[in-house]
Amino acid sequence: MIITVDGPSGSGKGTLCQLLAAKLGYHLLDSGALYRLTALAITRAGVSLGDESAVAAVARELAVVFNVSAQEQSVILQGADVSAEIRREEVGMLASQVAAMPLVRAALLQRQRAFVESPGLVADGRDMGTVVFPEAEVKVFLTASSEERAKRRFLQLQERQVQGKGESPNMAVILADIEDRDARDRSRAASPLVPATDALQIDSSTMPIDAVLAEVLVQVSQRLASLESGLT
Predict the structure, then answer these.
(1) Which of 11, 28, 106, 145 is deepest in the core (most CB within 10 A)?
(2) Domain total of the chain
(3) What range defines the domain where residue 50 resides?
């Protein structure tokens, strides 16, 4: 079984996918991390964002592993844990620009599909259900208001500041960044951020993650039952 969860940044899809993968014992694909990893890798290699072919070449050579449990998710690049590094705000903004490049999306498409293994896959992204896995048995489009997503990001960054791992966050700047990223994701020519026509759409603005998880697990159970009974 393939379960896709698409949606904008801060909607909670990362946490949902982590919990789903741990609960079901499925593999995890964090496609957003692939673009963040590409952004990080080109920064390290000194590759210009204006050289799309060179950026795509870096994307093709990424050596990445996703480790997941109910408590945490880690991203391993070339044997090193870069989970915290790829979540920096500047990496996310660069990743959004990288993700708009057709050559990069083509370079990563087959790699994403290669993550499908038994017993199943949970795929987190923005075009998982529309482009990468249109045949997925369960598709979810998770969203939340831009204000709520900015609040969640602010609290995350505030916690990092308390831990001495970042600077004081600015709510207005975070909200503006989210709205700018949303506009780019929705308007890009290559795989714009839109729900699949057969996706379960959930607004998580006022829903706790446990409630979102429970709703998706109902869909998964129903689909598994239908597959086992030979129905389509």
Answers:
(1) 11
(2) 1
(3) 2-218
- CATH number for the domain spanning 119: value is 3.40.50.300
Residues 6 or more apart from 222 whose CB is under 8 A from it? none
In a domain, 150, yes or no: yes
80 alpha carbon, distance to own chain's centre: 20
Torsion-angle region of 87 (φ positive above 0: left; ψ -120 to 50: alpha; else: beta): alpha
Residue 51 within a domain: yes
In the structure, what pLDDT confidence band is assigned to residue 82 with cuts at 50, 70 and 90?
Answer: very high
Scan for tokens 């963040």, then name that residue. 36
CA dist 225 → 19, 157, 222 (Å) = 21, 41, 5
Q: Could you tell me the pTM of the whole model?
A: 0.81
The two three-digit tokens of residue 112, written as one number: 């994403």
Q: In sequence order, which residues have a C-beta less than 8 Å from that of residue 184 and are 6 or more positions away?
A: 96, 97, 100
Specify if 229 maps to a domain: no
- Cα 50 to Cα 193: distance, rounded to the nearest angstrom: 23
Distance of alpha carbon 200 from alpha carbon 143, whole angstroms = 11
Whether 137 and 1 have beta carbons less than 8 Å apart is answered as yes
Which pLDDT band holds residue 156 (cuts at 50, 70, 90)?
confident
Q: Is residue 231 part of a domain?
A: no
CA 32 centroid distance within chain = 4
Rg of the chain on CA atoms, in Å: 17
pLDDT, residue 215, reads 95
- Asked if residues 66 and 30 have their Cβ atoms less than 8 Å apart, the reply is yes
Q: What is the SS3 assignment for 187?
A: helix
